[in-house]
Design a protein that fits this description.
Elements: E1 5-6, E2 11-15, E3 19-22, E4 41-42, E5 50-51, H1 54-72, H2 82-95, E6 103-104, E7 110-111, H3 120-124, H4 127-143, H5 152-165, E8 166-170, E9 176-181, E10 189-190, E11 196-201, E12 204-209, E13 213-214, E14 224-225, H6 234-245, H7 257-263, H8 296-315, H9 322-332, H10 341-356, H11 360-378, H12 383-398, H13 402-419, H14 425-452
Parallel strand pairs: 10-14
Antiparallel strand pairs: 1-13, 2-12, 3-9, 4-5, 6-7, 8-9, 11-12
Helix pairs in contact: 2-4, 8-9, 8-10, 9-10, 10-11, 11-12, 12-13, 12-14, 13-14
Length: 463
């Protein structure tokens, strides 16, 4: 019997990839077939790819056997670019009848490879993409027999379809570990205010609703996911979408002028007022809420610190440094509003840096300051928001802050149950055990406090 109503958190699409590739830096840690992390053994022939067990190796063999000899012939130590290996796998799949493979997104409707848009003209006019394509074409000569490589025009169309329709496969920490193409899921369009979210179980894609949906069958023309990081102003999001996907976003959120101003807001100079100020056009003379005068020096300081923050964030795109984050946060205090996205991005970097350095108390402080901003811009149900609360709760538990840990972990549970589902490893193997530990430790601490008769909470030192 068909459901007349789909609830938030319902799984509406699950799909195996048409083709996928593990990021090279994880080859020695993850299985090339299922992407599982752990002990992996090399293919005894090519010594390049690795598998977690015999079953995965057997399942992968029909696809791997043709590339195996090519990988074996490569010079020792040479690392194949992920995009080149992905493209070679797509070409081999197509040559084995892959163009007839159907990726179902409902019981009746499906997509095939030829349904995907190649964006050929856009690619030809994109200097960076053309340069990338030409470099991949050279590498393909080492991964495929020359007669097997499609002619230039067709090869470019395959490249375009790969670029535009690939998903980044992320692990439970939302770190990109691979890339995959899903035929059915390619139907999903983008919105900066999505009503669905994509997560992964190994290489398998799962799409869940973030909102209730009325109707017995989901109309995927009304389902949207986000292709990009939402913690950016509309002009940055639009630029990223235009550069990567060749379309201009005109969603409701991108037209929201109030949010645009908030994302770039200055703090009120009074120090006590929380009103966000729009200083972009230079016309605002006083705070609309408390009437504090906005002096020229405050405008200059805001502009200077905003530019400084953007420069530092750009430098920390790949590697962040806690001391740099702390310097930015010190300069931002009283100047950037707490909903300013560049303040939030700085906090996020500081949060992750403090965790890496095992500065738990400091990390908790940064994490708690992120909560309101993440909720506002990512929405109440988002994997990044759930993961933030889970990390904060885990550290609070470690520091014996049991009541606080329970609060954070319960909030995380409500989100992760929606975004990942109760069967996902993040929910079952990470979140639920932490919740159980927090509840048990809280009860023990309460019993000890009552038993002491002094009203002083007794806390065990967690090793």
């Amino acid at each position: 019997m068909k459901k007349a109503f789909h609830r938030r958190g319902d799984l509406i699409l699950q799909e195996k990839p048409f083709a996928c590739v593990l990021q090279p830096q994880y080859r020695q840690q993850r299985c090339d077939r299922c992407f599982k992390q752990g002990k992996v053994l090399k293919c005894s022939n090519c010594l390049y790819v690795r598998y977690c067990n015999r079953s995965c190796q057997t399942e992968a063999w029909p696809d791997h056997k043709d590339e195996c000899a090519k990988l074996k012939a490569l010079p020792a130590g040479l690392v194949v670019p992920a995009a080149a290996l992905m493209m070679a796998r797509i070409i081999r799949r197509l040559q084995k009848g892959g163009d007839f493979q159907k990726g179902y997104y409902t019981q009746r409707y499906y997509r095939r490879f030829h349904d995907l848009m190649p964006h050929e003209e856009n690619i030809r006019q994109d200097a960076k993409r053309i340069e990338h394509f030409e470099s991949l074409s050279v590498v393909l000569l080492r991964l495929l027999d020359e007669p097997a490589i499609p002619a230039g025009g067709e090869l470019l169309r395959i490249y375009g379809k790969m670029c535009i329709n690939s998903f980044n496969i992320v692990d439970n920490e939302t770190i990109t570990i691979g890339t995959a193409m899903y035929l059915g899921a390619s139907i999903l369009d983008h919105s900066c205010r999505p009503n669905a979210v994509a997560t992964f179980v190994g290489e398998t894609l799962q799409v869940r609703l973030l909102e209730d949906y009325a109707g017995s069958e989901v109309d995927f023309g009304k389902i949207f996911i986000s292709y990009i990081d939402l913690l950016n102003p509309a002009d940055v999001r639009r630029g990223e979408l235009a550069d990567r996907y060749y379309f201009g976003c005109e969603c409701e959120r991108c037209r929201d002028e109030a949010e645009r101003k908030l994302m770039n807001a200055a703090a009120c100079p009074s120090g006590d007022c929380e009103e966000p100020l729009d200083l972009d056009d230079g016309k605002l003379l006083a705070c609309p809420a408390c009437r504090t005068e906005i002096k020229h020096s405050h405008r200059e300081q805001f502009q200077e610190i905003s530019n400084f923050t953007k420069e530092q964030l750009a430098k920390m795109k790949d590697v962040a440094y806690l001391d740099v984050c702390q310097l930015c946060l010190k300069k931002q205090k009283g100047i950037l509003h707490h909903f300013n996205v560049y303040y939030l991005k700085t906090l996020d970097h500081a949060f992750e840096c403090a965790i890496d350095m095992e500065k738990w108390t400091e990390a908790i402080g940064y994490g708690l300051r992120l909560v309101d901003g993440f909720r506002k811009y990512h929405g109440p149900f988002h994997p990044l928001f759930g993961l933030l609360l889970l990390k904060v709760g885990k550290m609070q538990l470690y520091l014996c802050q049991f009541a606080e840990a329970m609060k954070s972990l319960h909030a995380a549970e409500k989100i992760v149950r929606v975004t990942h589902g109760e069967q996902h490893d993040l929910y079952r193997q990470q979140l639920v055990p932490l919740l159980c530990d927090a509840a048990r430790e809280f009860e023990l601490a309460e019993e000890a406090r009552k038993g002491s008769g002094s009203g002083v909470e007794i806390r065990e030192v967690m090793q």
